[in-house]
Amino acid sequence: MKVIIAGDFAPRARLAKQVEEKRFSEIFHKNILDTIKSADVSFVNFESPVVEDGYTPIPKYGPSLHCTAEAAEAVKFAGFTGVTMANNHILDFGAEGLYKSLECCKFQKLQVVGVGANLKEAEKVLYVNRGGKTLAVINCCEHEFSIATETEAGANPLNPIRQFYAIQEAKKKADYVLVIVHGGHEMFQLPSPRMVETYRFFVDAGADAVVNHHQHCYSGYEKYNGKPIFYGLGNFCFDLEKPVVNSPWNYGFMVEITFEDSINFSFFPYCQYAEKPEVKLLNQNAFDAELNSINTLICDDDKLRKSVETYYEDASSNELSILEPYKGRVLGKLYRMGILPAIVKGKKKQAITNHIMCEAHRDKLQYAITKRGH
């Protein structure tokens, strides 16, 4: 069974106009279409909810994405057989946007995984049958503002314990198990040690392949106990209001996994939404040098940890600024430049640290923030 997985599809700017006007052949170069349609099964991440007049964005940190019903038609035109929806934007316009997205994708006869009317529905495994073989697909995402609860619609949250049981159950019903995760640090090409540990755990639990997307740039991969783990695919079709050129944003790859007695894979690198508003395949070896460099770090736990810690150190001022009482871009920038002093320090900083790091305290803090509207 040949399966292709692609990264984020989010109609914005030039792409949004092409989608709304159904100029699909402009979006997908023929070599992209031929590649996708050559697979038995194919998935792309449906990043933006379908929104109609009157839908209201939810309160959240970060941008609220949206698209029109034609987005599902574009995905179908490209040749994809299904979409993953467990991501950080699918609930940007509440349950209405999620349900409309489901309706539009199902109308196009696209299989959907990763969301639902509640947690039980969202974490359902998708079973795909081809040629007498069954593939189980599990889709989840890191915790942002899109997560389903026991009573509310949303995306399937990344929870290694729950995913362990899902993988175990899927192994009983399917020949192969594929786990697709949406997570990682944006515009950073390395997985965190936590990601590596978690995704290797999924393989230990029985997954035959693990694929990650979200970071808006591609990452590397490894074979762990004979099973492939891909740590980032990059954007598939994701334009910006101010387009960039020759940025990591513009490059990604689709991964083709062949599920047989042994698991084999290949890459299809592409450039997307740079000077020209389209996604087009590049030479198959286009990213080899950079991928080899990234993979070397991924396979060396100590080097990976040091590289990620350097990234964390560079990001520390920005992260700590969220805890400070300075409002607005100007004051925030002055704090990050070291001109304004840190207010949160001493015992206050220790208290915050304890509530973030300690599981028991974090449970209470999370409840207070999310349930009581603080």
**CATH topology label of the largest domain:** Purple Acid Phosphatase, chain A, domain 2
Q: Class of the largest domain in CATH?
A: Alpha Beta
Rg over CA atoms: 21 Å
Total count of strands:
16
Low-confidence stretches: none
Largest sheet: 8 strands, mixed
Individual helix count:
13
Number of domains: 2
Structural category is alpha/beta
Cα shape: globular
- Summed over residues and divided by their number, the pLDDT gives a mean of 95
CATH architecture of the largest domain: 4-Layer Sandwich
Distance between the termini: 49 Å
CATH superfamily caption of the largest domain: Metallo-dependent phosphatases
Percentage of β-strand residues: 15-25%
Describe the model.
The chain has 2 domains: 298 residues, Metallo-dependent phosphatases (Purple Acid Phosphatase, chain A, domain 2, 4-Layer Sandwich); 57 residues, no CATH class. 37% of the residues lie in helices and 23% in strands. It contains 13 helices and 16 strands. The model has no long low-confidence stretch (mean pLDDT 95).
What topology emerges from the helices and strands here?
Elements: E1 2-10, H1 13-20, H2 24-27, H3 30-37, E2 41-46, H4 70-78, E3 82-84, H5 94-107, E4 111-113, E5 115-116, H6 119-122, E6 126-130, E7 133-141, E8 154-155, H7 160-173, E9 176-182, H8 193-205, E10 209-213, E11 221-224, E12 227-230, E13 235-238, E14 251-259, E15 263-272, E16 279-281, H9 288-298, H10 301-321, H11 328-336, H12 346-357, H13 359-371
Parallel strand pairs: 1-2, 1-13, 2-3, 3-4, 7-9, 9-10, 10-12
Antiparallel strand pairs: 1-14, 5-8, 6-7, 11-12, 14-15, 15-16
